[in-house]
Amino acid sequence: MHFGISTALLTPFRDDGGLDLPLLCSHATEVLENGAHGVTLFGTTGEGASIGLHERAEGIAAMIDGGVKAEVVTLGLCASAVADVLEQVEHGMASGITRFLLLPPFYFKGVDDDGLFDWHADLFERAGSGARFILYHIPQITHVPLSVDLVLRLREAFADRVAGIKDSAGRWDNTKALLETKKIPVLVGDERLLHKAAMMGAAGSICGMANLYPRRMRTLFDTRVEDVELSADVERVVSVPVVPALKQAMVTRTGIAGWGNLRAPLRPLNADAAAVIATRFPGRAA
Fold first, then answer.
1. How far apart are CA 248 and CA 212, in angstroms?
2. How many Å apart are CA 112 and CA 150, to the nearest integer?
3. Which of 42, 36, 40, 76 is nearest to 59 (CA)?
4. What is the pTM of this model?
């Protein structure tokens, strides 16, 4: 599978807290026109866990109606109840989206591989026949890791469902172990690892920095050469709360103050951190 670079879209909110649908759609169009192969909607970077079912449906419809083709959209899924995940899948499929980024059930901790296998199996057996899923390993957020053994077990049992694995743990040993199996397409969440992963055959990336630099991310993936300055930018972003940092960077890059709006429980960066981000990500005219 050649997946390429999918922008993990930030979700813009109006000052009253609602989704800023025109800005969401124009941003998606812009990153696609400037190098991204696709966009991922309502994932971790997009504050998907804070967006309700009705809003999800509105956001998807606006995106498709705005001219973004369903085939380049990956829809983030976030729920612990299989029935709730299925409803999110149905929203996407009603608009022609068939590719989904699937968080594991994140409420119960200390669950074993057998329990996680059963949860995924239940979902796969009940979802619409056209749905394809990218497993999502991001244990620093979910505290529910997907072991390499579990990933391969799910891929073998549900080859028609499991399209790949997104590894966002930021640990090269895990990414390398997945790539060495050569049994499942691997997407890299940490931009600092992408050049090494691409050399080993990674299928692409779903990443937050593509909100700011879609063309640079595509070049990094295509050339398999590290963008050292971009890696330094990532270091700065991950040293503070990531989503507020990326949104602050969008404010300084675009001059659009609304990009700074976040949904609770997330909060803006403190003044010192915001100043550092503003310096690191100057406006396009600077």
1. 11
2. 10
3. 42
4. 0.95
